[in-house]
Specification:
The protein is α+β, with helices and mostly antiparallel strands. The protein is built from 2 helices and 8 strands, in the order H-E-E-E-E-E-E-E-H-E. It has one domain (2-145). The protein has an 8-stranded antiparallel barrel with strand order 1-2-3-4-5-6-7-8.
Length: 148
């Protein structure tokens, strides 16, 4: 079953790469990122959703975010929401991650910024207790790595 999901995910990524190129031609506010995130990999979150993090995309179940920049020192990614996403298409997001209690957590603290600069300038999430709070009015989401 995981193999079938991985094959679907790869086909989806190829499709989204083609769409992304067209979107990039219209919006130059998202530079081509060349840095691998420290958390690069395929995960399942604590809600059962698939999460894939790479230097090009953050794919969250059926939403795609094109990575504009990675800051591994600050544990964050700025990304452009794909124009085909159901929520906030064409806007910008900021994902943050942290390790707490031997677990990896992420927070999409910004999801509707008008620009990459606005997403970068927003107040950070609070990582002091990610299992309970700190991602806006919510807890952070846990990332559980799927081994190859």
């Amino acid at each position: 079953m995981w193999l079938l999901q991985c094959e679907k995910l790869m086909a989806f990524m190829i499709f989204m790469t083609a769409i992304s190129g067209a979107a990039r031609a219209q919006d130059t506010a998202c530079a081509i990122n060349k840095t691998d995130p420290a958390i690069k990999g395929v995960y399942v979150d604590n809600f059962g959703g698939m999460q894939e993090v790479s230097k090009s995309f953050w794919i969250s179940t059926d939403a795609v975010f094109e990575v504009c920049s990675v800051d591994n020192a600050s544990d964050r990614i700025i990304a452009m929401n794909n124009p085909r996403n159901a929520y906030n298409p064409g806007k910008f997001s900021r994902f943050e991650w942290t390790n707490s209690a031997n677990r990896l957590w992420y927070c999409q603290i910004v999801f509707d910024a008008p620009s990459a600069a606005a997403a970068a300038a927003a107040a950070p999430a609070n990582a002091s207790n990610p299992a309970q709070t700190g991602c806006g009015n919510f807890a952070w989401s846990e990332l559980i790595r799927i081994l190859p």
